[in-house]
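Cross-posted from the bioinformatics board.
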Amino acid sequence: MNVYLFELKAQLRGFLAGVITLIGVAVVFLYGAYPIYRDSKADVQHMIDGFPPQFAALFGVNKDVFSFGGFYRFSSLYFMLIVAIMACGWGLSIFGREKRSKAVDFLFVMPASRIRLYAAKLAAGLTLTIAAGVLFLGTVALIYAQFGDDPTATSIPLSRLLLAACSLFGIGVLFLSFGALTAVLLRRIRSVSGIATAFGVLGFMLVSLPEMTGEEKYRVISPFTWFNVSEALDHGSYEAGYAGLAAAVAVLCLTGAAAVYARADARGL
Amino acid sequence: MESGNRGVSCETPAILTWHLTKRYGKARGIEDVNLNVHEGEIFGFIGPNGAGKSTTIRTLLGLIRRTSGEASIFGLDCDRDRTHILEQVGYLPSEVFYYDGMRARDLLKYAASFYRKDCSARIRELSAKLGLNLDQKVEDMSLGNRKKVGIVQGLMHSPRLIILDEPTSGLDPLVQRAFFDLMLEENRRGATILFSSHILSEVQRICDRVAIIREGRVVAVRSVAEMRRSAVKRVTIGFAESSTAAAAAVRTLEAMPGVRSLNADAIGASASAGSDAQSSGGSDSGSGAGGDRIASGTASASFLYEGDCNALIAALAGLDLADVEIAEPTLEEVFMHYYQPDGDSGELCALDARTAEAQNRGMTENRGAAERPAR
């Protein structure tokens, strides 16, 4: 419990910075930009019609964009990007804290098994990820309520919108696990934000790979697409295969990280 | 300074290692380290930098995993029972690092939260003894003050075993003194202390027995009393007047028992006395080259001396000297003195081999007496 609380406290500033960014972007996009977008429906429709389909797909733009859910579909990639960077950063920070401050000896001579320490750190990371997700869902629901009396906006029900927003939990846990594994594998962590941004941007760029090539198989290496927001919005579910893949990868990363954390030599300074 | 609790228990050893080996890939770590530290003693662990002291300690603490061999603390296996062991162990590393942005008070509180006892009174008491300001941020502290935080952290849970890895580096003489007093106090309380250092004098100051480690291997375990009896001194003498006086002095010293590694600077070729170089005759063969410098008053000789100090003083009194210095030899000189490589094989000398053998015998006996950690 002490390690869990310590990590939560130590990560509080990073958590607030991440969550404020996420919610800020959500408010700007969903509350600020959406009404403008909706009101210029005719103009935007005209513009999108002029795009080559692949080009439109690159930006995640399709013709459902005028509903609130549709607009969320368009924005979701950016939310995913923020959550990916944020969660990966938490993973790196929490599991690399001792390495960065050279306090590995301090923690590892405490009478606690390394697995217990790992579990406490993981619990702290998951708590932050879930808390960020819940706050985001609450924000989305509140903004949705602002457009409750607009049939164009509410053509996709709130339940499906929230289900689509739940993709951020998946992305969060997945990138937390990437961060955790990276932190335990790297001998020295020079820049948490640099590595986290690299992971996030790579995930973001890989989204366009299956879309631009039209090859479905590339989704396997594109984590953002494992949580298919369109499926959630249109059919109220995620694709079981890809959701399973995401879960398997996360579990694999976290198990691998736990094994390394528990077994590896704490190198001298 | 007197050593503390000298009551050595015949029960389970505080630390027992058996052929403990750690290799870093192909690089050497430690090889076949056999240690048997009795409960209640202050055990010194001495060797030059990179000899394997820290590796041994880190293996004992479970910070790194042994490649082979066995290691136990209070009869508990250092890998399997790590958590139970660490409840009873206090560790002070050579370099103390903590999390950034934390005050000493918060850091020690966090450390204390891992132990199933209230350490707050002990933290206050130790901090007062060491003059440590608990409200200062650790990152703003000097090296010495950070070390004080380390000392408090290592002792706050009143451990049964205290492991110190070069603990005095960064401490000023006053704090060093307070630190040694604290250690002796802990020892009187019943704590066993493993004290690693590369400074012979500080190990001799408080330890009961000393293990000497070199190039990853324990080459000898000796009692400090025994070391004191055979205390080696580095003697340096200067000659002011004539080359004949210097040459005569060197001949006298060469013939004197207990003199080794005699180097006669500026007399000529270095003359080595002792069993390994009795025949060098350096003073005669090199007198030509060194003679001018002797005449100009710069000749000096130095040697290691082991034996009765009165005999040494008497011998020196008979010489015409301009200067004399009797100092503690460096650790390397001690090694060279005790552990001259054997001429044929390069192995350590017979004394070393005898000591290691005796130690191994002791280990075997102790392993029989003590409950061997169950696999």
